## 1
Amino acid sequence: MTRLAGKVALVTGGGRGIGRALALKLAREGAKIVLNDLDEAPVAETVKIVQEMGGEITSVVGSVTEPNFGERFVAAALETFGDVHIIVNNAGYTWDSVIQKTSDEQFQAMLDIHLIAPFRILRAATAHIREAVKREDERQEYAYRKVVNISSLAGLYGNAGQAGYSVGKAGIVGLTRTLCKEWGRYRVNVNCVAFGLIETRLTQPLTSGEAHISIEGRELGVGIQPKLLQAISTMAPLGRAGTPKEAADAIYLFCSPESDYISGQVLVCGGGLLM
């Protein structure tokens, strides 16, 4: 079945991990994909996989925090596929410190990636969505569009050492619920998925020194000490971390037609872990 045939889906952070798993899931369901990631190589790999599946995909490489990225991203969707039906704000990373060691730059970077970038993308899509809905009303075609924002248990409950990350992920919940009220008249379902522990490069076990990711010239440490990782995993009632595919499946629930009367909600995908 191709439940999303004809739909155009925009996915940020789609070169790896959860974003890649989601792009593949949406493509299998018939959606045309507009893929973003910061780095060219993982984007090219995801694009190749989707094309080998027979899917349609285009890419926009670069940082979602660039001031004009939202306009560029939406324009790529319209120029290539002519519409926007699904927007998933998935891009993100962690830059952790206790508050007394958190710089202004560090705190702002977490707000930029997790809150301001999604805001700009959604703002950029507004004009098209409004005009598209007017045309659909004239034809008496009443399709629903989908926005899925990504939060975290840290955004719902806070987490020591993650002041900036937690605030950014809490803010995206507020934006989700606000747009639910503003965009309901446009038949847009706006929801949020909050993740617990998911197996990605950000949560990899530190078995041989500190791992790093490169973000706009910054080398940032990532990963979790194995004993702490095991402890967090066993805290979840299901007794383990989630996989990128399972995380993508949670997002897909809000992209599917089954969510047409669900909006303004936060779904926790954490194996039962509620902090």
## 2
Amino acid sequence: MKPRVDDFVERSKHLQGMSDEELNVYFWQLVEKVVDPLVDLAQTHTSPSIERSVLLRMGFNSLESKQLVDMIFERGLLGKGAGHIVWRIAKEKGIDYMEAGRKLIEGQYWEDVDRIFKGVSK
């Protein structure tokens, strides 16, 4: 294997005159450049498996998570976020989010979901 040419001194010249504070600011600017595209992608793309994972982390079991995601997917609302939908219903109804999710599985509150997320009024 060919040894790597050590060019650190040359590549780091633009950093040499910076204070610790300036280096810290520069570091976080670079981090943002790397992470921003990932954040943008996450805001516009999801999948049933990602949404099930979110619900699992909220405390729902795998069967509940699958049912909720399937019901949300059938309504074309997966892009709104399964956890977000459950949380918004819980907030609106003044109940625990676990209870809200289980009520959705039982078929309740879907008219509220449509009103909130689709702008449907009845």
## 3
Amino acid sequence: MGCSLAFYLARQGRSVIVIDRGRIGQGATAACAGGIRAQFSTEVNIRIGMEAKRVLSRFADETGATADFRQVGYLFLLTTDEERERFAEAVRLQRRLGLDDVVELSPSDAKAIVPGLETGDLAGATFCPSDGLAGPNEVTYGFANAARRGGAVILEDTPIDAFLTRDDTVKGVATAGGDVICQDTVICAGPWSAALGAMLGLALPIEPSRRQVFVSEPFSGIGRRTPMTIDFHTSFYFHPEGNGVLFGMSDPSVAPGEDTTVDWSMLERITAVAQRRWPPLLDARVKTAWAGLYEMTPDFQPLIGPLRPGLWVAAGFSGHGFMMAPVLGRWLAAWMVGGASPTDLAAFAPDRFQRGALQPERNVV
């Protein structure tokens, strides 16, 4: 998010400094599964997903780098009638907004797309072939290097010690390498954003939540064009990764926190679900695993906008930050420079919880 914002701000002539306590792209981004989709339940998120696909399709023209964008599609498997009806409603909204290739499928249609699926208990499915996968490293460094060419400075291994303030206005940040004085400061530190806000006494409703990913050795049971497949009822998902398969599943029992150690017992729980939904996975040999952090908010929507004079936030993406960054970086840059966002972002207003003005996202894995 920070590298995208830096690129678009630099392109509009702003002087930009990105400050990272570690290395860019090595936090939550490094652990994400790389999904890009427009199959959301709210209008603003659908529009962001559609625009993200357009941006990534022409990423090389904008940044000079590849996004490794592979439009293999997203397939949602729906177990209950309530899920089927909810996703059918979302498909109607998606198509009304211009997502013309999204369709509802029967269980047998879904099995034809992903051989080996067990579909006897499914109520239905949805599929959008223009959704897909992109490279987290490729996109992050594509934005970062293009931002540098536009004059942006990126300071790595530089923790923030404090915010510099005058009265209620943020004037910059203090680091061990010196103070950075600036007109605008943006908190976009993913799951660590709430800790930064706390330095100013702000209670940002963002909690880190661990997610685990497993990747197999070369595996003939999946093809390179197999879609990102999500069993919505259980959150089990898989997609092709190199010559193998990448898969995972959320674990609601895990308490919020920054622990990113791999819990190998999770593999047994995933295997039990896979045996019922996609038995071919049982023949895959796991090569590696890692854990990363989602940045969760109570309504699964991000915080975008001003917090106080001189201070902005772009965080709390609840697992959707990578796919939203190519769009929200541009929209937020336009807002900061021109005084208004090109699109209504009221659903992401940081003060919406106090006002009770919520538009929750329901298609969350």
## 4
Amino acid sequence: MEAGFFLVYNRSMKFENVHNLTLPKIGFGTWEIGGGSYPDPSKDSASMTALRAALEVGYTHFDTAESYASGHCEELLGRAVRETNIPREKVFITTKVSPEHLAYNALLKSCENSLRRLQMDYIDLYLIHWPSAHMNLPEAFRALNKLVREGKVRHLGVSNFKLRQLKQAQECSETPIVTNQVPYRLPDKSYVENGVLEYCQQNDILVTAYSPVKFRSMRVNKTLGEVAEAHSATPFQIALAWLVMQPRVITIPMSYNPRHIKENFDAAEIELTSEEMSRLSSAWEK
């Protein structure tokens, strides 16, 4: 694939801009690429096909973690980027450090290991994957801030942080917290109810919605089906559009299916009306 095709195809994608950083509204999640919690080589062929398809469609933001397939996911993602000959600066890589590695030296080592598996010189966005009850957040950010100063990491964020933890992370970080990656989807609005979404929107922090089309009743919800039909779209595309129509919200769906990968990408172009947004927001209320 030529870089020119990649750039032209991606031009119409919706973006969010925070802290001199531009991110597409829809990126590519990689949970289950290369395996689940452990490597599964039998998935390598399908995983590489999915990653290549995403790159060819025009995805530029890829989200992974050291825990995905015990690091094998990072290896496959790095290989896919190299094989498609896309310049490193044209892709945005997010990866995450696991909660058991938040001690100062362990975190520095985790970052080095992720860079080695990706075969890249820097990580665009590095997240604490999960908070833990006994984590020493100032110590973790002492290491994270050092990684930013050294250029090994460009931006910092967190994942699955509640409001109090998010505010503490802001206090510890020498650079702006770019995102809090949380489970947010129709109809799960727990991070609306706990105040995280509103706080992020008011403080230039992106909410990265993961598992955005996970809910099983999505296929049969009447309202979702009606809105999908009105836009000649799938229910899953409408669920993604509902997310990306919201300010300061981006999302990272994953699929092995090349057709679904493109449909997910194209969902960023669907324009929902305020009435449709409202109908979808209340579609699961009793």
